[in-house]
Design goal:
disordered N terminus, single chain, alpha+beta, eight-stranded antiparallel beta barrel
Length: 264
């Protein structure tokens, strides 16, 4: 009688490895990570320096490093409540890629030379007042960012960045659930509010909070889409559910235009 051999440790390990590999390839898409840098500026001279740095040094260096789409935005003229700022959105496939890219920038001689006026500016003439770096993880229901397409001029396009702060970690988790399992992302999709990303803030100020960005061809389209969203049966039902009450303690909306050198 032929003896049946039981699988050994190596065979079992290989089975687990193959299962893990299959899930990563064929299962739930991996959630991307995003960095949002927010530069605060005090005058036009700083704006000129940072524009040149981003256009001629930072973005080309990231392209060389394999990140092909970087978004750069500035507040619309009427939205001056938060002062002059520049927003830089950079996507990463993994958290490790973020650190790898930053290490690469430190060794990129072309980048260091092209960005010298910004990187090595005089201490008494800095290129910004201060900047913040926010590191985020994409929501499971929209695990990767999307680039919207419009025929309107860039100066007309509206990219609305929203920051939602919560009173507690539990309330923040519930708000994220509201977007994912609750269907808030689906409502935005149904009314045509083209989203770039939805994400949980992992590192940054004002935690716990989430951030997301929806986009519109122009301000008229922006107003119409938000009106449709607010009047939709889906939103009325979802926002009226007791389990999602008081999940947001503070909302900050930022109306932005993409710059001429932004990748989208």
């Amino acid at each position: 009688m032929k003896k049946i051999q039981k699988p050994g440790i190596i065979t079992a390990f290989m089975a687990l490895f193959l299962l893990s590999f299959s899930l990563s390839v064929f299962g739930q898409p991996k959630q991307q990570y995003y960095e949002l840098k927010i530069y605060r500026l005090s005058d036009k001279s700083q704006e000129s320096v940072i524009d040149a740095y981003l256009k001629d040094a930072y973005i080309p260096a990231l392209h060389r490093a394999g990140i092909h789409v970087i978004g750069v935005f500035k507040p619309v003229e009427a939205d001056t409540a938060f002062g002059k700022m520049v927003y830089v959105f950079t996507p990463f496939q993994t958290a490790d890629q973020y650190f790898q890219v930053n290490d690469r920038l430190e060794k990129d001689k072309v980048y260091l030379e092209a960005g010298k006026a910004f990187l090595d500016a005089p201490y008494d003439h800095p290129p910004f007042s201060r900047y913040e770096s926010i590191f985020m993880k994409a929501f499971s229901k929209m695990p990767a960012f999307r680039v919207p397409e419009y025929t309107t001029d860039r100066s007309q396009r509206i990219y609305e960045l929203r920051s939602y702060e919560s009173a507690t970690e539990a309330k923040a988790t519930k708000k994220i659930e509201m977007f994912n399992e609750g269907g808030e992302i689906g409502i935005f999709e149904s009314v045509g509010s083209n989203a770039v990303f939805y994400a949980q803030v992992l590192l940054g100020s004002k935690k716990p909070r989430l951030m997301y960005m929806t986009t519109y061809a122009d301000m008229k389209s922006h107003d119409e889409h938000w009106k449709t969203f607010g009047a939709s049966d889906g939103w009325k039902k979802l926002s009226g559910m007791e389990e999602y009450k008081n999940t947001v303690s503070k909302v900050n909306p930022y109306l932005l235009h993409p710059t001429s050198y932004s990748d989208f």
